Amino acid sequence: IAWARTEMTLDEWEPQNDDASPETINWEYLKQQDKDGSNLRREFELARQIQDMGVPYVISVWHLPSWLYNDPNQPKGTSRRTVPAEKWQELLECIGSYLLHAKQQYGVEPDLFCFNEANIGVYVYFSPEEHREAIKSIGAYLEKLGLKTKMLLADATGPRGTHTYAIPASEDPEAMKT
Questions:
Q1: Between β-strands 150-151 and 112-115, what pairing exists: parallel, antiparallel or unpaired?
Q2: SS (H, E, C) 94-143
Q3: CB 94: neighbour CB atoms within 10 A?
Q4: Of 22, 80, 120, 174, which is most buried with the most CB atoms under 10 A?
Q5: Average pLDDT over residues 59-88
Q6: pLDDT tens digits for 14-23?
Q7: Euclidean distance between CA atoms 41 and 137, whole angstroms
Q8: How far apart (Å, rounded) are the C-alpha atoms in residues 145 and 103?
Q9: If pLDDT is split at 50, 70 and 90, which confidence band does 68 have?
Q10: Percent of the chain having pLDDT more than 90?
Q11: Cα–Cα dist 95/64, whole Å
Q12: What is the pLDDT of residue 121?
């Protein structure tokens, strides 16, 4: 196995906002989500199994908790949803706390992180420019937390022309270092 990929189920990790501040993490609330028999527990254990095998892996977000979207009342499978600017710090906290928990409780750290096919917005949409800014912001946040996880450039879908999605980020030295 050259590479593996797992899902980061943030909608199970933080189904409701843990607190009113993205500067603090309510670990008691979040750790309650990681319970025996849960999909979330299986996800963490699979990551540990992959890492124990020495296989590098990518962790990807498909769905966000509904409260993080600009349209929180839409059904879970709604495509092309976005995160409003005022919730961006909460998104960083959600991603960072998940990865810190995985590292501290399971001894795992993914090599790369991305949003699944954000170019078409399967469930989370970023324009090419928003993708560049997300790479810079998330990458800097993970580095600040002391995590080794780097950003995957352009997890894009489609048979032709998808390389153009990566151009804004690939031409930005700050984005390329994360």
A1: parallel
A2: HHHHHHHHHHHHHCCCCCEEEECCCCCCCCCCCCHHHHHHHHHHHHHHHH
A3: 26
A4: 22
A5: 96
A6: 999 999 999 9
A7: 27
A8: 11
A9: very high
A10: 95
A11: 10
A12: 93
User: Which has the closest alpha carbon to 18: 98, 125, 107, 81?
Assistant: 98
DSSP conformation class of 16: S
pLDDT at 52 over 90: yes
- Token pair 């804004």 is found at 168
Encoded tokens for 60: 């990807």
Q: What residue has token string 């797992």?
A: 6
HSE at residue 144, side-chain half, CA atoms within 13 A, is: 12
Distance CA 34, CA 37 (A): 9
132-169: per-residue pLDDT in tens? 999 999 999 999 999 999 999 999 998 788 899 999 99
Q: Which residues of 41-77 are buried (b: 16+ CB within 10 A; e: fewer)?
A: eebbebbeebbeeeeebbbbbbbbbbebbeeeeeeee
Adjacency order of strands within the sheet including 57-61: 4-7, 57-61, 112-115, 150-151
What does the pLDDT read at residue 57? 97
